[in-house]
Structures are given as C-alpha cells and as structure tokens.
C-alpha cells in the first residue's frame, strides 16, 4: 500500500473535533476507499484540552504557522474561521505546495479569486465541500453530478439558524426575538447571530454556488443580502393564509441579461418540498435543462456533519494528488480559463413576484389609489387580503403581485408610501414559485 497521506489541521472547535473523530472512527473504511491511509499528523489548537478523549497521538502546535512550515504535510485542513489570518495561512500553504481543505465560506466568497488563482498557479487543490450546506454533498453534485447540464437556477435554504427561527415563528407563533433566544440556547446561533440572521452566511454560500453553477468568478460584493430581523409574526400568518411559507432563500439565477445573486426572506408555496425543510436543516433545489429539478437535503451545520464533508474532500484530494492537475475537477467546475464574467444584475433589475403589507387608514378609495399606482408601472395584483382589527385606526392591506421588474415596483412603492393614508413603512417580500424552467423535453 502507498504511504499515508499526511494531514495537518488548524482549528479544534466543533468541526475540528468532529473531523478527528470521523477520521479515527472510520479509518478502516476510508483506507479501503482511498487505497492509502489518511493520517492526521499535526494539529494547531489554542486550547489543548480540546483534544482530550479524541485519541489524537500526533504533533500539537499552538502556532498555525508551524503547520504551514511543516514539510511533512501533504494537506492542510483549515477549520479555524475568520478571513485575515486564514487567508494568509492558506496562501502560504498553497505556495508551499500543500493541498488545502477548508470549511471557510466567508474566506472563499470574499477572497476566492485570489486563492483559486494561487492554487491554479501552484498546481494544488483547494477543496471546499464543507463550506456550503455542511454534510450535503452539493458542491460535488453541482460540479460533477450535473456537469452535463446547463443550470438555470439554484435556490437554497442554506442557513440552519435562520431556518430554525422561521420554523418556530410559524409552528409556535413565537416572535423573532423569542425564536432567536431559543436558537441561542440550543447552540444553533452564535452569541452574535448577525451573520446568520442578517443573511451574510447564506450570501457567502450562494456566492460560491453561483460560481460553480454558471462558471462565473466568485463575486460576493455583488450579492444582494437581506436578513429576517424585520419579519413579524403577522407576515408569517398572512403568508400561510395565502398558501405560502417564508424561508430565508439564497437564489442564483441565470437570465439573458446576466446573473441574479441574492439572499432574502422569500415566500415559497406551502406545498413545495422546500417549504417542509424545518429546524436547522438545509436544502438546495437546482433547476437545470437535462436533469430538470433535483433537491438536496440534510444537516447544514454541526461538528460531525461538517466533518463528513471535510473527510470526503480529503478522500478526493488523496485520490487525485498524484494526478496531473489538468486531470482534476476544476475548482469552480469550469476550466479556470473558461470562466465567464457574466454581469451580476443589480437588485432593481431582477424579475420576481412580490408580497406587500401596507398599513393604511381604512377608508373609501385607499385600495383604488394603491392599485392605480401599481397599474401605472404595469404591475398586476394577483391576490389581496385585508383584515379589519376592531378599534385600530389602520388596517393591514396585504397584496400578492405578479412577476415584475423590481425597479418598477420601487417607483410604485415610493408613491404609495407617500400617500397620506399610509401609516408605516411598507413591508415588501419577494415570492419565488420555484417552477421548473423549460427543459429538453
Ligand atoms: N451558522 C450556519 C448555520 C452554519 O446556521 O447554518 C455554518 O455555516
């Protein structure tokens, strides 16, 4: 049998510990798959007590640079997070000819171009299955399994924390604040949950997905991001009444003019499979021409599920590290010199259906005024709910609008907001019906 593949790992949090555990528990199975042993020989950990009970017998450093400078290592696994030090470490490891496996979506979304270009120059792999949707092998599915397809769009529930919060708002009738507090208690959300609930984490992931789906450079700066803080229980309830559920969706869609790349709370049909993805689970729906729609579901976070993806990447690296780099799967699914810088569309140019909640005085002519201002922009109303609340000075008017250009809706909304009868800021949510686009047959 060939020599073991020597692996180093920086970071020993939940995911690092999970990786040590999975490598050790499944060592025999992994060796049967690879034909060589994957041996973890050197780890960097600030708190060595984290290694207790993991049975790790290799070298332990507290300085991550000791791993970059370790000539014995074939592969460096980065699970420490952050973007500054992690970027420097990975670039140095790549320059030293080491392959890299990382779970760091923020790093790759923000610095992917630089990191993948460096890897290309040095003929090493940067594997990142664990960066998107935890255990779900979505990178492999899109990059390899769907390689024969032209992908139309990808839509995913890719942040478990916000999905848990929205699930509880729907099921238990909790407010956003109550559901967030519970998510923190259960350890889903960080003490500072902003990356999860403000959409940044999902934006990092959908940015990477867009690159491998369409063969475009990694372009996080152009991703439109909205989180779920502004949602109220009343919107969850109105959505349900209209036959929808609200989910935080990452959407990457190819249009003739360019690519839509966005994360926002979204109404999706209540009878769609994605609407039934509950709690901290993730799911990604891919619409492509030959395969039609395919759906990928599983655990999007946590130590062992994320370790599952990291070890799968290690297996891939070990199988192809001796191959000529041009025979490996390209980092972003398409050959590096064949990436196309398609325009990323500003949010005003997207085409979508919409949900509006307008808090307005209840008197004759109000609806007519709203409908007129929408009609002037060519926007058609699909459904309407108005609920009178006894004793209240204003009523919520909830409208579902047919698909239109967002910039046209912006003009109408400015005018509606300026009406004297409109009492509060209008809430606008996007609606995705997730219908299959035209395929071959
Ligand atoms: N915090 C993320 C989530 C997992 O809640 O899904 C890591 O990206």
Secondary-structure map:
Layout: E1 5-10, H1 14-25, H2 27-34, E2 38-44, E3 59-61, H3 65-68, E4 75-78, H4 84-95, E5 99-102, H5 105-122, E6 126-127, H6 138-145, E7 151-157, H7 160-172, H8 176-185, H9 194-197, H10 200-214, E8 224-225, H11 233-241, E9 244-255, E10 258-269, E11 281-288, E12 292-299, H12 303-320, E13 351-361, H13 366-376, E14 381-386, E15 394-405, H14 406-417, E16 427-431
Parallel strand pairs: 1-2, 1-4, 2-3, 4-5, 5-6, 8-10, 10-16
Antiparallel strand pairs: 7-9, 7-11, 9-10, 11-12, 13-15, 13-16, 14-15
Helix pairs in contact: 1-12, 4-5, 5-10, 7-8, 13-14
L-homoserine binds at residues 159-161, 188, 196, 201, 300-301.
Write a concise synopsis of the structure shown.
By secondary structure, the chain is of the alpha/beta class.
Question: How would you describe what is shown here?
Answer:
The chain is α/β, with parallel strands linked by helices and 441 residues long. The protein folds into three domains: 5-136 and 304-338, Rossmann fold, CATH 3.40.50; 138-300, Dihydrodipicolinate Reductase, domain 2, CATH 3.30.360.10; 347-431, Alpha-Beta Plaits (2-Layer Sandwich), CATH 3.30.70.260. It has helices spanning 14-25, 27-34, 65-68, 84-95, 105-122, 138-145, 160-172, 176-185, 194-197, 200-214, 233-241, 303-320, 366-376, 406-417; strands at residues 5-10, 38-44, 59-61, 75-78, 99-102, 126-127, 151-157, 224-225, 244-255, 258-269, 281-288, 292-299, 351-361, 381-386, 394-405, 427-431. Strands 7, 8, 9, 10, 11, 12, 13, 14, 15 and 16 form a ten-stranded mixed β-sheet that branches. Strands 3-2-1-4-5-6 form a six-stranded parallel β-sheet, with helices on both faces. Strand 4 (75-78), helix 4 and strand 5 form a beta-alpha-beta unit. Helix 1 crosses helix 12 (303-320). It is elongated and about 80 Å long. The structure holds L-homoserine (HSE). L-homoserine is lined by residues 159-161, 188, 196, 201, 300-301. L-homoserine binds at residues 159-161, 188, 196, 201, 300-301.
């Amino acid at each position: 049998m060939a020599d073991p593949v020597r692996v180093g790992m920086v970071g020993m949090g939940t995911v690092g510990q999970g990786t040590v555990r999975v490598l050790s528990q499944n060592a025999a199975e992994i060796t049967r798959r690879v034909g060589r042993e994957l041996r973890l020989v050197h780890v960097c950990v600030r708190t060595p007590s984290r290694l207790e009970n993991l049975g790790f017998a290799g070298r332990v450093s507290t300085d991550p640079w000791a791993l970059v400078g370790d000539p014995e290592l074939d592969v460096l696994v980065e699970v420490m997070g952050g973007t500054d030090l992690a970027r420097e470490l990975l670039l140095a490891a790549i320059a030293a000819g080491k392959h890299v496996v990382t779970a760091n979506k923020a790093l790759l979304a923000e610095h992917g171009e630089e990191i993948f270009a460096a890897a290309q120059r040095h003929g090493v792999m940067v594997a990142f299955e664990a960066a998107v949707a935890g255990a779900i092998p979505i990178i492999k599915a899109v990059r390899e399994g769907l390689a024969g397809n032209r992908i139309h769009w990808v839509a995913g529930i890719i942040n478990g924390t916000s999905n848990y919060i929205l699930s509880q708002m729907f099921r238990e009738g909790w407010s956003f604040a109550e559901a967030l507090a519970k998510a923190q208690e259960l350890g889903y959300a960080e003490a500072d949950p902003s990356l999860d609930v403000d959409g940044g984490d999902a934006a990092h992931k959908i940015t990477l997905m867009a690159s491998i789906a369409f063969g475009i450079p990694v372009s996080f700066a152009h991703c439109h991001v909205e989180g779920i803080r502004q949602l109220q229980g009343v919107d969850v309830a109105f959505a349900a009444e209209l036959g929808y559920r609200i989910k935080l969706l990452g959407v990457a869609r190819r249009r003739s003019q360019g690519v839509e790349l966005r994360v926002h709370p979204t109404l999706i049909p209540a009878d769609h499979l994605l609407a039934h993805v509950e709690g901290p689970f993730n799911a990604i729906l891919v619409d492509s021409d030959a395969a039609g729609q395919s759906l990928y579901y599983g655990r999007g976070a946590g130590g062992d599920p994320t370790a599952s993806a990291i070890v799968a990447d290690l297996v891939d690296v070990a199988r192809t590290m001796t191959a000529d780099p041009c025979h490996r799967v390209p980092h972003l699914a398409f050959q590096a010199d064949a990436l196309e810088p398609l325009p990323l569309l500003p949010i005003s140019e997207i085409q979508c259906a919409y949900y509006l909640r307008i808090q307005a005085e209840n008197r004759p002519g109000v609806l007519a005024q709203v409908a007129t201002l929408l009609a002037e922009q060519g926007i058609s109303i699909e459904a309407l709910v108005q609920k009178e609340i006894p004793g209240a000075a204003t009523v919520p008017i909830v409208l579902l609008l047919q698909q239109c250009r967002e910039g046209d809706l912006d003009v109408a909304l400015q005018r509606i907001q300026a009406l004297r009868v409109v009492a509060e800021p209008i809430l606008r949510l996007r609606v995705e019906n997730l219908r299959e686009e035209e395929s071959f047959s």
